[in-house]
Design brief:
YciI family protein; Dimeric_a/b-barrel; flat; alpha+beta; Alpha-Beta Plaits; YCII
Length: about 120
Amino acid sequence: MNYTFLLYSDPTGFADMTEDDWAREKEVYGAYIGALQEAGVFVSTDWLQPAMTATTLSVQNGKTRIENGPFAETTETLGGYFVIDVPDLDAAIAWAEKCPAAQYGKVEIRATAMGGD
């Protein structure tokens, strides 16, 4: 079963990060990705550009509306995701607990509606 981890955090927490801080952050996530790969559960991952760069589209009554920015004003924003393939929610929770984002933000876990391999 595929599960997606949606990684939410407050982007202001990253405002003062130095290049060395970012390098350490990449190492931490690299180790997590390596652990997922070694366990054979890794499917995909990506970091997203900041929410302020988003474009939001809606179609209502046949009319397309395009807006700059995210669809909602919130403190925490979606910053990236992981997709893993594990047997059940308990296994997904165990991997989400190890996700670096859980240490400073929130990890929302959702099962895919289309199943997995």
